[in-house]
Amino acid sequence: MNNELNNNDKNQEPVPLKKPVxxxxxxxxxxxxxxxxxxxxxxxxxxxxxxKTQMVLPVILLINGEINIHRVSDELLFATTDGPSIFGxxxxxxxxxxxxxxxxxxxxxxxxxxxxxxxLVAEQGAIRDLLEYQTYFNDYxxxxxxxxxxxxxxxxxxxxxxxxxxxxKEKRLKISVANYxxxxxxxxxxxxxxxxxxxxxxxxxxxxxGKLISLQRKLPNVY
Length: 223
Description:
- This protein has helices at residues 21-31, 48-53, 93-98, 114-124, 127-148, 153-165, 169-172, 177-183, 189-201, and strands at residues 36-38, 44-46, 58-64, 66-71, 77-82, 85-87, 99-104, 108-113, 205-208, 211-215.
- By secondary structure, the protein is an alpha+beta fold.
- It has 2 domains: 21-147, Jelly Rolls; 153-215, Orthogonal Bundle (Arc Repressor Mutant, subunit A), CATH 1.10.10.
């Protein structure tokens, strides 16, 4: 492992994305006036049925809980999103065809049609909130795609370790580091385990019982 940090611009940490909480809250409050609650009593609640059975595009409101987004082609876990969040405002049937949405048990979710959502935005003059959230959402999707495209195995592992460490400690200590990385990438288990072992031996990370305890210092940009 190369312990020297490369200071080239391309290796600088990206500006962290910040969810526009106020805009999301305003939109959800507006949309809930006509939205219908979704039953999430099962262990895994596949929301794809909402997309396939309705003749119109849905907008999904995640109030509390989590939605996991898998890429249909290879079941890669593209992202896990906490509430509050909104999906479907782009109005793209293509997105619903290539991604599968599933909610964790007990998540609070509502659904309305995209036409209803757009009509409410127009009627209530909420275009600024809509654009602010859409800008964030588009940047988030670009960030997720950029994580995997033209990246080495180490760069992917490094980015996912940093992402995992940002998860609240109580939740993080229930997550297997290896599984977290493998579910979100197409990397081989042997390669991931080798990188994790090297980072541990270099005292960059602390892992106990398969859980990420801490990042001891900045992870090297190159392996």
